[in-house]
Structures are given as structure tokens and as C-alpha cells.
Amino acid sequence: MMNTWDKQYTQAVIDLWNTEAVKDGYKELTEQSFEQIFASSPYFDKENTFVLTQNEQVIGFACGCTGEDLPLGQVAGYLTCIVLDEESQTEENYAELLHAVEKRFQELGKKQSDVLFFNPMMLPWYIPDTPKHEHNNAPGVPVDSRLYSFLLEEGYVERAKECAMYLNLDLFAMPEEIRTKQEKAAASGYSVELFDAGRHEGVAAMLQGLNNPLWEKEIGKCTSDGTPVVVAAHGRQVVGFAGPVIRQDNGRGYFAGIGVHPEHEGHGLGTILFFKLCEAFKSIGTDYMSLYTGSSNPAIRIYEKAGFQTVKQFAVMRREFSL
């Protein structure tokens, strides 16, 4: 029987997740983390959250979310997850849960269903072969999962592969060629160091030039309140950033991204910024870093040069609804 969300299912769904979703590498749920990720999210919709039961036992859980203020939000719904008990992982059960989510998307006027990193319901997962080091968000569907193959069968198109990359910072050392690159940039008037409000200016203009509202908000706030950010500067003017430099409680180095103003590209600043970011994380006792990038993104070579390895792949997927 298909049921829309009711709080009475919370513990049973947590138990299902901790039995089945963890097999695909996802972090276990607690009542607190379930509430944080799902139920208390401003994008949670009980009419788009489904529980499949059999003989009054929960055998399946699916959740989707929507929001006009989200990237692609006016046309897309985000498929967050579909989890089924091992004995219930049939085509029919997967389809019943998926079609329930998609029907809700269409009722809300959405033209497509997406599985991608813009989903605000962030699902943490464990990095394989580590002491439960974790990444804070899954940027798509794990390519080695049953759900991935099912979505392909249902007509979802794989639009990109995201490589999840990992570095144990104990193994990081600044290569001599990066120091040489930094010296060359310095000869052209560029410096790469931690932001200092007494020495640097122009953060807002730099961020506007990168045209990323999330960076404008987060990096702008960090440079205002003193949270460390690695910046590239030409004289006093900030022309790029990497960061912020924050060690999370789980030992991971959190950062929002890296960007260089288009007018100052071509000096190797992006590479220098990334290596200086790794150095900054290591200096504050950060245990590890993790990130994801497109499999065809040339930046993957920079990450590999720093010692990062691809540890998992996720598929960004979409299905457009027929009119």
C-alpha cells in the first residue's frame, strides 16, 4: 500500500535506511539527522514523500522536493531518494515509488525530474576504505547502485558523471613546481595568501564578476566576519578566492569553492589557490578533504596532482515529462 508521509513512519524509515541505504555507502540516519535532512527542511513536502507498506510493515521510502527559488526550480523537481527493503527490490515497487514522486512533480507544474547536486536535501555518505570519513552531499545517483540501473531503464538520461575525490591531508606536501608558479605570478604583481581586511579590498567586485550568488553570500560573509579565506590579489585588489578554510567537527575540510575573476585568468592562480587551500587546511589540523568534479573537467588534473584520488562516481540524471 502506498502512503503519503506521516510521522508515525519515522523510526521504520530510519531502520530501513540503516539496513539498505547504507549498502550504497550512505551515512546512517538518527532521529536527529532524519529531522534535519528531511522533515524540518523548508523544501519538505509530505505530499511528495511516500512510504510503501506490506502487511503493515514499511518496505519502501521515496522522497522528492521542489522549490521555486532553487536552481532550475521553476521547471524541475528533485528526486532525493528511493529505498527499498532487499526482498522488495522489484521493478514494480521501484516504479510505484518513482511514479508517485513524478506525479507530484507534475501536479506542481514541473516539466522534468532531476537527480543532481542542487538538491537541498543533502545526503551524507562515507568515503570507502577510510575510518568513516564522510562527504556532506551526494551529487547524484551512485553508479554502482540498483537505483541507477533502474532509472536508466525508466528513461532517465545520464547527463554527467561526477567524480568524488578524496585526500588524506597527512599525505599532502606542496610541490616545488607550485612554488615556482607562485613566484612567476608574483613577478606579475599577484599574491596568494589568507585574506586580510587591512591589506586587501574589492571582494564584492571579484565575487560579482564570478556570477555565483551562493559564493557572493557565503564568501562575502566570511571575509566580513573574519573566517579564513585564501585569496589571490593583484596589489590590494582581490581577484580570486578559495575557501573558506573551515575544519568541520568530523575532521573534513569544508570549502565552498574556488574562483578567479575572468579578467585575471591565465596566470595559474586557480592552481595556486587550490594548493594553498590544501596547505591552509593542513596547517589547522584538518584530517582530510573531499570534493566532486565532472569526469571531463580539466581541473581533475589539478586535484590529482595534489594527491586526490577518485573514490566513487555519481550520475547526474534527468527525465523530461511527456506533454
SSE pattern, N- to C-terminal: EHHEEEHEEEEHEHEHHEEEEEHEHE
The percent of residues in helical segments reads 25-40%
Low-confidence stretches: none
Q: Supply Rg.
A: 22 Å
Count of helices? 9
Mind sketching the topology for me?
Blueprint: E1 2-4, H1 10-20, H2 31-39, E2 49-54, E3 57-65, E4 76-84, H3 91-107, E5 112-115, E6 125-126, E7 134-135, E8 141-142, H4 146-153, E9 157-168, H5 176-187, E10 190-194, H6 203-210, H7 213-225, E11 230-234, E12 237-243, E13 246-247, E14 252-254, E15 257-260, H8 269-283, E16 288-294, H9 300-305, E17 309-320
Parallel strand pairs: 4-5, 14-16
Antiparallel strand pairs: 1-2, 2-3, 3-4, 5-17, 6-7, 8-17, 9-16, 9-17, 10-11, 11-12, 12-15, 13-14
Helix pairs in contact: 5-8, 6-7
Organism: Paenibacillus chibensis
Protein name: GNAT family N-acetyltransferase
InterPro entries: Acyl_CoA_acyltransferase (IPR016181), GNAT_dom (IPR000182)
